[in-house]
Amino acid sequence: MTTCSGRKVTHGRILMLFLFALVAVLALAMLAGCSKKGPGSGYGGPNGGSGAGSGTGSNTRGGGSGGSGSQTKQDKAQDHIPPNAIWALNGTVKYKADLGNSIYDNITLDLDFSKLEGNYPSGKYVGDVYINEVLDASQYAKNFSNLTHGLASIHANVEAYGLRDQMPVTVQGLQDFQKGGNTWPATADASGKQVSPGKEEYVANTTFAMAGEAKGSGGGQGNAGSGTVKVGDLSMSGSGQYDVTLRFIIEPDSVWGDSFYESATGTRKVQIFATISSSSHKAVSFSGEGTLTRQKGGSQAVQDYNSSHESLGKKYGVSATN
Q1: Longest alpha-carbon distance in the chain
Q2: pLDDT tens-digit readout, 19-62
Q3: I want to staple 252 with a disulfide (CB 3.0 to 4.6 A). Which of 63, 200, 226, 306 is the partner?
Q4: What whole-number distance in Å separates Cα of residue 156 and Cα of residue 253?
């Protein structure tokens, strides 16, 4: 937790502090009699504060054991087991949340899981989940800057991220998932259509908390009649927590065909469903698409994979917040 002007600033209050600073600039110009136009109503939507961090993270892959699902193809292949493989589950999903008053929260969810052995996709995967939020208040600021007199410029830049690494996720056949006493909750795709997995599909479902780090700056200048009055950049940072639910549905065997298991490599589509909430805004739910990739297995292939694989911390140049 860091401080600004001697006061502690939390992740959830960063946006509000920026908006107060922006309104203060506008008020300065109005009091100087440079504008008779009002800015309209203030920010009244849910808080959308967030922030960016920097650093370098490292991530060493752990190998999860490959379980066996109850898929029809496996039942038919008792006399022929497909070759061992490395399984990689990846996806990047972007979502733009409307916070009201022309302010938007651009969310990026990136995930990277792998299982370093197994004949089928089922089993324990280990990997990273990265969330980035960038506040877009450009139109909100433009509404002020377009006044005939008074405000010359105004800006607010806020960004946040969270990175959880070495996180386990278990992929199962839907029938095994249900035998474990689990039910698939109501899940909507990007178009809002309710989606449920079929009996031959692989699924995964997990809920977890992730720490978040925020950073930002804001300021502006206005004409006070006798000259320009500038409100210097307001810089602050803080921390908070994301509550995340992830669900995956992997294309079934009926779509893939036999070649996926028989060949050394292959790719299937994965539907990704996410719900993210934090102290700075209410929960948002969105969906997108990822991939499940089968790669050649074996001890040398695993060694090569570990030595060449780039963690999400390294990809984005940030340290894990976990």
Answers
A1: 89
A2: 444 444 444 444 443 333 333 322 222 223 333 333 333 333 33
A3: 200
A4: 49
